[in-house]
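Open question from group meeting: does this chain pack into something compact, or does most of it stay loose? Before anyone orders reagents, we agreed to write out a predicted structure and look at it together. Recording both the input and the output here so the notebook holds the full record.
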Amino acid sequence: MATTDTLAHSAARGAMFTMGAQLARILLQLLSVVILARLLSPHDYGLLAIALVVVGVGEIFRDFGLTSASVQAPTLTDGQRDNLFWINSALGTGLAAIAFVAAWPVSLLTGQGELLGILQVLALVFVVNGIATQYRAQLMRALRFRALAIADIVSATLALSGAVVAALLGAGYWSLVIQQLAAATVLLVMLVAFGRWRPRRYARVHEVRGLVAFGWHLVVTGLITYGAAQIDTIVVAAKFGTTSLGLYNRAFQIVMTPLNQIRSPLTNVALPVFSRAQEHRERFDSFVTAGQLALGYALGLPLLLVCGMAEPVVALMLGPQWEGATPLLRCFAIAGALTTLSFVGYWVYVSRGLSRQLLQYSLVSTGIRAVCIIVGSFFGVVGIGIGFAVAPAIAWPLSIWWLSRITTLPVRALYTGALRMLTVSAVAALTAWAASTAAMPVAGAWVALGAGLAAASAALGLLLLVPAIRRDARTLIGFGRLMLRR
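Structure tokens returned:
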């Protein structure tokens, strides 16, 4: 049995490799946004946004929750791993065929003929990702985070390079399709090379029914969560068209793409560590509170700074034709900070095998998001963005209360820790907003961004005079030392 120190060190080292890889991917993504936003139109991004709604639904079925099932299982035989590989591969192939056929009705319903070719080409992603699923799961299970980090960086680099080259050659929206295909293909090659195992034939003697049942609950939960996440996209496309959807999507991607590129891989670190620690309540509780604290300050603080400095951020990253994305960017930054707080709850559900209870909670949170977005739609595209931000403000406190009713949880520590993080981040964001707003008309976007960051840094320095904030800082510094310790 691993000790607390060993698990903490594994978590910290895994987080270091993961965060390093994702930081590299985020920098590449931001560079791509800066270039592609000037080469492609909002309409191009609107088309891809619609296509990825369809692809995203299929990806939930393609995984079938079997990545998490493999990682959290106390024991997993080679035969079970082989069987899961063939299940995921079959699901990917079947979904590719369905997506290919579904491209016709989707293009007719949306009135966008370009979607026919886009969806039929993107169908190949299901096959590639189906094959890759268990290779990624086994690397996660073995805590081989360095290998995962390298694979993610290489695949993202080549994919983004291909997209930029294609856009420069005039490929239009096809450059975005190329990016998706290249990322999946290169990642598969890298995972197979690192995995060092070859699947044998499917054998019924190796029982996987329990793993599939666990995965099924995650599939339904994922569909509900994904459906809730796409309500805004569907409403914007239906009521306001592809150009408005392009503005909405770009603002969303500036915040949510980097955020998901960090949160999802960190889940790969957290789940195996949480699963091993769950037998010891004090150890588990300390990981839960530390995890929320690290996520809150590492992600929530930068997100709220983006909210405060949205005007220069949009000007620098997207250019003048995207000015309408500024208020939307503020909404998404607030929403991202709040949803990050509730992400630790998801780790607890999955690591403790509470997939059915997670499904039940997801139904409630989905209803909250749907109501907020639909009400907001009566006030235009920005109203939808506001509804998107209000939903997690309601759902996050509810998630902690809900989870505490079915399992042990350090509720007080989670609430107070979140309150400190939000207070610190809000003060820094307001300070950054005041400084950047004053500088923007006079000196331009770059100076406004620098003034905002300088003002926020000064505010954070003053906040460190508060004892509770200093304790949080010491906790984060200690976590950083664990990352660097070999």
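Observations to bring back to the group:
Residues 3 and 277 are 9 Å apart (CA to CA).
The chain has 17 helices and no strands.
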